[in-house]
Amino acid sequence: MKVDLLQTPWIALFTVMAASSAPAPLVAEVIASDSASDAAYGDGWQGLNGFVPAETGTDNGGFGFLPWDFEEDEAFWESEHSPYATAHFIDTEPKSFNNLGAPAFGLTNATVPMFGYTTIATRPFAQPLRPGDEISVDIDNPVMQKLAPMDSAGFRVTLRTTGNTERFGLYTTQDFNNDEWAITDSRGDEATSGLSDMEGSGGFRFAFKLTATESYRLTITPRGGVPSVFEGTLRRPDAGEITRIQFLMYGNGSAATGEREFFFNDLRIESAAGPGPLQRPSDCNQDGSVDISDAICLLSRLFQGGELPCGPFATDPGNVGLLDGNGDSRVDLSDAVRLLDFLFRGSAPPVLGLSCVPIEGCPDNASACQ
């Protein structure tokens, strides 16, 4: 359902008068933020399951997120069919077709028709979206250009569960819905936003707010334009919490000018509910610091039993958020190894860093961790 922002004058006047006497709205707190200018991407953009070694790694810029995942097993790309050495890159020039400015995250394809070349970048959150949370990102899609008459091309931005179930989507496919971006929710996948790929190629802001456990408000704001607001309910009720955002392009090809590339930047999650319980990542024994005693604590719990800090099971969401040091969404021996490598070999720290962060499902340990 689209909400008309251009109301009749007397309704608008009433709204202004009511707002002037209403309590000040709650100020949203930024609980996750990242941009392509972060130091983590200074040597390029690497993620889990990269297509080639040059883009394979655990880049995790900003805060409040887990490392990027490129999901190689669900995509298809070959460097010999593209002017870019990797499918995922940081645009630093900027290219003339990138209206977001540089640096920005970029996805590219292979310029081969009829093979369904697909590139994916998924960003998991440190904690699931809660009612009142809003995730936003700046997007600049190219104009869709099929590589052959019977081919297909398109772009998707989806919000998904840990099990990769899509709960919400915004997508555009050439020759569907007049080439406009369409919405996927409980109604299906044919509701149009009214924003064409031509308009989207000038850049727009995507802002999705979870208004209740199963309902949302989407705001699309073209660069220099008027916002459009849509409300609805998530698809697949009770399928699980939203824990990641995914960007996908397929079939549009690749061009050195950036004419066919999909750009986005400035990911942010804001919460009107404020931060959750504070914890220091990997602090298994809850003493407020991270040292060898935490590796011993984790190994002991895994192999000798005993209750973990945020629930009785290693699969409890709080324990995964606190103790999943390598960002693979589970708690096991590899997380203790990651911590020991960091402490004694100078390797990368836990994926959430070492500062106190809000971790849902855990007790508040602010007095110790700060």
Spell out the blueprint of helices and strands.
Elements: E1 2-3, H1 9-21, E2 29-34, E3 88-91, E4 104-107, E5 118-124, E6 133-140, E7 154-160, E8 166-173, E9 180-185, E10 188-196, H2 197-200, E11 204-212, E12 215-222, E13 228-233, E14 244-250, E15 262-271, E16 278-279, H3 292-304, H4 317-323, H5 333-345, E17 357-358, H6 366-369
Antiparallel strand pairs: 1-13, 2-15, 3-4, 4-15, 5-14, 6-11, 6-15, 7-8, 7-14, 8-9, 9-10, 11-12, 12-13, 16-17
Structural features, described:
With 370 residues, this protein is of the alpha+beta class. The chain has two domains: 24-271, Jelly Rolls (Sandwich); 278-369, Orthogonal Bundle (Type 1 dockerin domain), CATH 1.10.1330. Helix content is 15%, strand content 28%. It contains six helices and 17 strands. Strand 9 (180-185) and strand 10 form a beta hairpin. Helix 3 runs antiparallel to helix 5.
Tell me what portion of residues adopts beta-strand conformation.
Answer: 25-35%
Biggest sheet architecture: 9 strands, antiparallel
| Name of the level-1 CATH class of the largest domain | Mainly Beta
Structural class comes to alpha+beta
Mean pLDDT: 88
Supply Rg: 22 Å
**Count of runs of 4 or more consecutive helical residues:** 6
Say how many strands there are: 17
The residue ranges in which pLDDT falls below 50 over 5 or more consecutive positions are: 2-26
Helix content: 10-25%
Distance between the termini: 45 Å
Shape: globular
Describe, in short, the structure shown.
This protein has about 375 residues and is α+β, with helices and mostly antiparallel strands. It is built from six helices and 17 strands. Helix content is about 15%, strand content about 30%.
